[in-house]
Design brief:
2 domains; about 15% strand; globular; Aspartate Aminotransferase, domain 1; about 375 residues; alpha/beta; binds pyridoxal-5'-phosphate; Aspartate Aminotransferase, domain 2; four-stranded antiparallel beta sheet
């Protein structure tokens, strides 16, 4: 009886997050020294010296608690986007921000609308905050119809979470659609939460940064992370631009010392390295294009992407995933991301992409036998 009663029943509605396979795990299993990890969309490029130095500086202060308000980082981000520091949240990754944010806004019985397939963490964070999830599936691999999303918001809907560009499809919502969505949600009193983890990789002029919506429409929360183009995934730091009332509520739900001092210093230093970020962006976009062309030459059905990963459709995707592991290459199973029959591959360093393509070629010969 105790076993049945002790944990929350609604947690049965969701599976725990299936993360990309860690390098160390595959090394333990297969004894490889060199692994190519293309499963978590991290930045593979080395960090600039100034960021490494900031990490060392921060590491000398770890006997003290970090500054809970992340004063300097918050100020830098406010200046970067032309908003007030009172409209900025600094949190322990997008993940940390989402959990505390949803805890700050959800009342019992309220709903979160989630266009799917998308980053599975939204559902986990929503259920953890006791929200009811309304999932709206995209038609094929097309983006969701904005009208569909709007019509599924009821008087119980508190927020709609959208990923732009989306993980795992790599597609973005064009400017006009996003404005339509934001304006309609504003009129319905629904908070629009836009996760822009991959915004820096978009090279389509039809993209609209969420902060513009925040300025124009207001009832919007935009989340950006330091885990992707800034290369700080292990330090767990992200930020959000949000209405002050939301920031004030967030301040009551988040773990007080959630952003450590190394992360605060490294993130501030990373933001200052604009040339480095520009360079990583250009190199990633060039590699993405090369990888897409090579995959299509191999006959793989691959969707063009605005982010630092590509989505491949293949009926034997799980088998290909397993065989690639044996070659020392980790990609991501679509089934982990709500899209069975697909593989997601991050854009790596040129030599990593080459190793992936060579291994894939080899694997495909046995898969197609
Ligand atoms: C859509 C999306 N948002 C955010 C993140 C990054 O999260 P975090 O900032 O918690 O590292 C990822 C990483 O895979 C992602 O795919």
């Amino acid at each position: 009886m105790w076993v049945k009663k002790i944990v929350r029943e609604d947690l049965n509605l969701v599976e725990k997050y299936r993360y990309g396979k860690p390098i160390q795990e595959l090394q333990r299993e297969l004894g490889f020294e060199k692994i190519v990890k293309l499963c978590s969309n991290e930045s593979p490029w080395p960090l600039p010296d100034a960021v490494c130095e900031a990490i060392v500086r921060g590491s000398k202060e770890v006997q003290r608690y970090p500054e809970p308000g992340s004063y300097f980082l918050r100020k830098i981000i406010a200046t970067k986007w032309g908003v007030s520091p009172k409209e900025v949240i600094i949190g322990a990754g997008t993940e940390g921000i989402l959990h505390s944010l949803l805890h700050a806004i959800i009342n019992p019985g309220e709903e979160i609308v989630l266009p799917t397939p998308t980053y599975p963490l939204y559902k986990l964070a929503a259920i953890a905050a006791s929200a009811k999830c309304i999932e709206i599936n995209a038609k094929d691999e097309d983006y969701w119809m904005v009208e569909d999303l709007i019509s599924n918001c009821s008087e119980k809907t508190k927020a709609l979470v959208i990923c732009n560009p989306n993980n795992p499809t790599g597609k973005m919502i064009p400017r006009s659609e996003l404005i339509k969505l934001a304006v309609e949600l504003e009129s319905k009193g629904v908070l629009l939460i836009v996760d822009e983890a991959y915004a820096e990789y978009v090279d389509d002029p039809a993209y609209l940064a969420g902060v513009e919506l925040f300025r124009q429409v207001g009832r919007v929360v935009v989340i950006r992370t330091f885990s992707k183009i800034y290369g700080l995934a292990a330090l767990r730091v992200a930020y959000a631009i949000a209405p002050k009332v939301v920031v004030d509520a967030y301040d009551k739900t988040h773990p007080v010392f959630e952003v450590n001092s190394i992360a605060q210093k490294a993130a501030a230093a990373a933001l200052a390295e604009e040339d480095h970020v520009r360079e990583v962006r250009i190199k990633t976009i060039a590699e993405r294009k090369k990888l897409l062309e090579s995959l299509r030459e191999l006959g793989m059905y691959t969707i063009s992407s605005c982010a630092n990963f590509l989505l491949i459709k293949h009926p034997k995707s799980d088998l290909i995933f397993e065989l690639l592991l044996k070659e020392g290459v980790i990609v991501r199973k679509g089934s982990d991301l709500g899209l069975p029959g697909h593989l997601r591959v991050s854009v790596g360093l040129p030599e990593e992409n080459e190793k992936f393509l060579a291994s894939l070629k080899k694997v495909l010969t046995s898969v197609e036998l």
